[in-house]
Design a protein that fits this description.
The relative contact order is 0.22. The protein has 4 helices and 13 strands. 11% of the residues lie in helices and 52% in strands. Strand 4 and strand 5 form a beta hairpin.
């Protein structure tokens, strides 16, 4: 899959690692930074393309998406992302994500409105549920980060090159390739969110780290099956 992620906002909250670990499948361990796990709410606009950026896919070429994710490690220390939910404003994209990658896509009524240096995201879940779970986020966009402004935590949260899912009772992975995030400072104006708690997590505490990115181009590889936890790790070829 080739895609652009446009007008994307990161909201990152620190969590007790044990709370996150209780919701992860066997074979994945919550990744921590200075002893804390992290949960991110990430609303954006997805544009799915064919290689070469010549054509959009019919009916699902462009739609809003909001995901709730955390940061994990395999048994060999490989880092990646685990998605608790991915709300999409396209029924076909929801079916495709569930069938192709077994990701927990949800079909939702969604919108993204960008006005100069302000962007607002709205999401209300339709199916499968919990129906009516909603999120409304508004941020003001600031200046671009200078390289010296980026902290180790900024890199730790954004430099992730794998995603994981469970298919047929086994853990699978897929490679994700993208350039470094073109991060901008952002200020949270509003956050009324049910999606994090709908994933089984407690309500986040405190102010999140807030960041914005205009666009990043992403390529997602084919899923590959990971060996059972008891077997030695073999890297895909």
């Amino acid at each position: 899959m080739h895609m652009h992620w446009d007008d994307l906002t990161f909201l990152h909250w620190a969590y007790d690692p044990d709370v996150i670990q209780a919701l992860l499948p066997e074979g994945l361990t919550v990744d921590t930074y200075e002893g804390r796990g992290w949960i991110s709410l990430v609303p954006f606009v997805m544009r799915v393309i064919v290689p070469g950026d010549r054509y959009r896919l019919p009916f699902i070429g462009r739609f809003p998406e909001t995901n709730v994710r955390t940061y994990v490690r395999e048994s060999d220390g490989t880092q990646g992302i685990w998605f608790f939910s991915l709300d999409a404003g396209s029924a076909l994209a929801t079916l495709g994500g569930r069938a192709g990658y077994r990701l927990p896509y949800m079909w939702s009524d969604m919108s993204v409105r960008r006005n100069a240096d302000t962007v607002e995201y709205h999401c209300r879940r339709r199916f499968p549920g919990p129906k009516g779970a909603a999120s409304r986020v508004q941020v003001s966009i600031g200046d671009a980060y200078e390289p010296a402004d980026l902290t180790d935590l900024d890199h730790w949260l954004s430099a992730r090159w794998r995603l994981y899912s469970v298919m047929f009772g086994r853990l699978w992975g897929a490679h994700a390739v993208h350039e470094q995030w073109p991060l901008r400072h952002a200020t949270l104006q509003r956050c009324d969110d049910d999606l994090v708690t709908a994933a089984g997590l407690p309500h986040p505490i405190g102010d999140p780290i807030v960041q914005f990115a205009e666009r990043v181009t992403v390529r997602i590889g084919r899923p590959y099956r990971l060996p059972p936890v008891s077997e030695p790790k073999r890297r895909p070829t």
